[in-house]
Design a protein that fits this description.
The complex is a heterodimer. Chain A contains 14 helices and no strands. By secondary structure, chain A is an all-alpha fold. Chain A has 2 domains: 55 residues, no CATH class; 211 residues, MetI-like (MetI-like fold). Helices cover 69% and strands 1% of the residues of chain B. The relative contact order of chain B is 0.12. Classes of the chains: A mainly alpha, B mainly alpha. At the A-B interface, helix 1, helix 3, helix 4, helix 5 and helix 8 of A face helix 3, helix 4, helix 6, helix 7 and helix 8 of B. Chain A: It is found in: Cell membrane.
């Protein structure tokens, strides 16, 4: 065997392995996809699996779309993402700037307060936070869903890390030029942190789009459901065809999957910064 | 602090000069500059601090308070002292939940701490199209647990693909209804939870691997070290700080499993998938047993902190920098 042949064989074997593993991660979604487009006469489950819909039909997509108020849920999720992602990034950045670039009394206290939220896991906070939100009259409102999700220790840490890397001279130069702190924040710090902001945007989008437990606890009125909660609702509607549930689920993950595929090149960089931080 | 020390050392300096010297000598990176008001550094974190106060500090205090009361969310709360904690000690379902959560912790360890490291080594190779594979492995991470739960119910179906594979290879004689079987339901959920988060852990390791200088591997190769030896003696020691991160994350995640249980089994069959997270939720929002739910939440909270501390103690000092 020539070295060249050995090289190509090894490479081919590597791709077989990589593809087999990929199938493990993508397979369950392919099964959903297949079920979503199968006609009523074709079995969803069989030995051996019969995955190609013959012919593919849109019946189930339409049924899922009308069984639950699908467009409303999609729109709700768009609203939650559109409001929460920019606001949480701004809140995080505002908090991170003085933590990174100013000295003041109580700085460590603020830092540790934010740090402590990482050890107040969502599961534990679910009930007491719901009680507080109820007391504030925010139960069953958009605000009740949105407000508690705006503080992110992760975002603050990542941005503090990034802001700390902005050279002191740049900020001092802006200050000597008579720049207001808010202007420095907006025109110096935020542009310098653009890659980090992108990462926070991506992770924020994914987590808000998929949010489930907190909206479920806060919302009684299903008209305000985000899409993930809508899918769980669809699954609970008696008599929902497995194909229809599959169709509804596929549509629900499509926007976030497409968004991720477009933005994925930023993710690894973000991980690198996050773990270092 | 800085101001105090400065004053005691230079009591005679003129006020104007003193201000300048303080910055020049004691704290060259000190923040406050002429024209900056003393409260400026506090205005920026204000929104975050308000959110912290309202949605973290206040609920945390509420939880501690409530854990000493019996309250059904309608009538007046009744003070019961440590009654909720005593009740918890003799509550079989609490111990079942704790046990199941620990099973998740153990079961998800290989899936989230070990296998992702191997995956990261695999996708850290320089191959055409490797980024596509990374993305595909990460796909379950970006989808909602609800969608993942639905997808895996199809996989676990009696006539589903898993049973087809396992009976086909002769591993099983009969198809199993995984989610309806008290023995198999928990392992099935462990698999789903692990499968969904593997990508995150792989990416963390990948970030770590890319900080290891490649010449280390080349030198080892020249010395004749096998792939296994390179993994064992270069990769693993250098990746320990990242293992500390993944281990903490794995514990936090495993101890809080909720959505997969809610979507796929509702804690059944026969409480075999009743996790602590699910039991707390159920006590609070299905039985309106607010005080008891709070007490269990506090116990979970303390457990998580203890685990994080233990993990910190164990991995601390083993950090190796290249």
């Amino acid at each position: 065997m020539t070295p060249k042949l050995a090289f190509w064989l090894r490479r081919a074997g590597m791709y077989v392995l990589l593809t087999a593993i990929a199938l493990v991660f993508v397979g369950p979604f392919l099964i959903l996809l297949s079920a979503a487009f199968k006609p009523a006469g074709q079995a969803v489950f069989s030995f051996p699996p019969d995955v190609i819909p013959r012919p593919p039909v849109l019946t189930w997509v339409k049924e899922a779309w009308t069984t639950i108020p699908y467009p409303t849920y999609l729109l709700n999720s768009v609203v939650y993402v559109g409001v929460m992602v920019p606001v949480y990034i701004i809140v995080s950045a505002l908090c991170a700037y003085p933590l990174a670039q100013m000295n003041f009394r109580g700085k460590n206290l603020i830092f540790f307060a934010i740090l402590s939220t990482m050890f107040l896991p969502g599961e534990v906070m679910l009930l007491p936070r719901f009680l507080v939100v109820s007391q504030l009259g925010l139960a069953d409102t958009y605000a009740g869903v949105i407000l508690p999700g705006l503080l992110s220790a992760f975002g603050i840490f990542l941005l503090r890390q990034t802001f700390a890397g902005v050279p002191r001279e740049v900020i001092d130069a802006a200050r000597t030029d008579g720049c207001h702190e808010l202007r420095i924040f907006w025109h110096v710090m935020l542009p310098a942190a653009r890659p980090t902001l992108a990462i926070l945007g991506i992770f924020g989008f994914i987590s808000v789009w998929n949010s489930f437990i907190w909206p479920m606890v806060v919302l009684k009125d299903s008209a305000m459901y985000p899409i993930a909660l809508g899918i769980s609702y669809l699954a609970g509607v008696t008599g929902t065809d497995v194909r229809s549930l599959a169709a509804g689920t596929v549509i629900s993950i499509l926007p976030v999957v497409i968004f991720f595929m477009i933005m994925q090149r930023h993710v690894l960089e973000g991980m690198r910064g996050a773990v270092k931080g | 602090m800085a101001i105090h020390v400065q004053e005691s050392h230079a009591p005679s300096a003129a006020p104007a000069r003193r201000g300048r010297r303080k910055r020049d000598v004691r704290a060259p990176r000190s923040g406050r500059l002429p024209g900056q008001r003393w409260y400026t550094p506090y205005l920026f974190p204000l929104p975050a601090l308000i959110l912290f106060g309202v949605f973290f500090a206040w609920p945390a205090i509420t939880a501690i308070q409530l854990s000493f009361f019996d309250w059904d969310a309608i009538s007046e709360p009744v003070f019961v002292g440590a009654g909720n904690f005593a009740r918890l000690m003799s509550d079989d379902r609490f111990w079942t939940g704790l046990g199941n959560s620990l099973l998740f912790l153990v079961g998800m360890f290989p899936l989230l701490v070990v296998i992702p490291l191997l995956l990261a080594v695999l996708v850290n190779q320089r191959l055409p199209g490797i980024k596509t594979f990374r993305m595909l492995y990460y796909l379950p991470v970006v989808t909602s647990m609800v969608a993942v739960g639905v997808a895996w119910e199809y996989v676990f179906n009696q006539q589903g693909v898993l049973n087809w594979i396992l009976t086909g290879f002769g591993v099983l004689d009969q198809p199993i209804q995984y989610l309806l079987d008290p023995v198999w339901a928990l392992p099935a959920l462990v698999l789903v939870e692990g499968w969904k988060s593997m990508g995150v852990f792989m990416m963390i390791y990948l970030a770590g691997l890319q900080t290891i200088p490649t010449n280390l591997y080349e030198a080892a190769k020249v010395d004749g070290a096998s792939a296994w030896h390179r993994l064992r003696h270069i990769t693993v020691p250098l990746i320990v700080p990242y293992i500390a991160v993944t281990l903490t994350m794995e514990m936090l995640e495993a101890m809080q499993v909720f959505t997969s249980v809610y979507v796929m089994t509702q804690g059944g069959p026969q409480d075999s998938t009743l996790t602590l997270g699910y039991y707390i939720w159920s006590a609070a929002f299905q039985k309106y047993d607010m005080g008891y739910a709070s007490a269990m939440g506090l116990v979970l909270w303390v457990l998580l902190i203890l685990m994080a501390l233990a993990n910190y103690r164990i991995t601390k000092g083993r950090t190796v920098t290249p």
